[in-house]
Amino acid sequence: MAFLNIIYCMLICVGKGFAILSIIGNYWVGLSSIDLQWFHSGLWFACAFDICTEIKNELDYLHVTRAFMIIGCMSYFIAFVLSLLSYSKKIKNHKISGAFLLATAIFLAIGLSVFTNEVNKSSLIKYSWSYIIGWCSFAISIISAFICFAIMVETEST
């Protein structure tokens, strides 16, 4: 059981780190043109020739993606704090932490899906590492939630 707890805490930390890196990374999408000009963009900045400028035209899908990704990060943080409290025996139930991890997965999935839906309208744009680790963070939150519930079941059976 101690091994499962260690894996659980490590997954939450990695997932939270991935979510933060995804939000701040300027590599959600990239575009390479015929004359080898390079363009990449994140949620906050668009960069061309390694010169980044803040995204001024506030698009609705970008607002939604930003909001849900930030809420997902906050939810990750709450789940982490709750898991620490449950291990220190201040909270007797792991269900709350698991529920927050599932909520994290939902928030991240909504933000990433809205972005995906909008970007898929253009065939020239390719997804990049910030976007990919956002989806990895989503998967980690689901795996962490299942581990949390497995720990809860194992704890209740003993």
TrEMBL record:
It is found in: Membrane. The chain crosses the membrane at residues 7-29, 67-87, 99-116, 128-153. The keyword Kinase does not apply. Its main location: membrane. Keywords: Membrane, Transmembrane, Transmembrane helix. The keyword Transmembrane helix applies. It is a multi-pass membrane protein. Pfam families: PMP22_Claudin (PF00822). It comes from the Eukaryota. This is Lens fiber membrane intrinsic protein-like isoform X2.
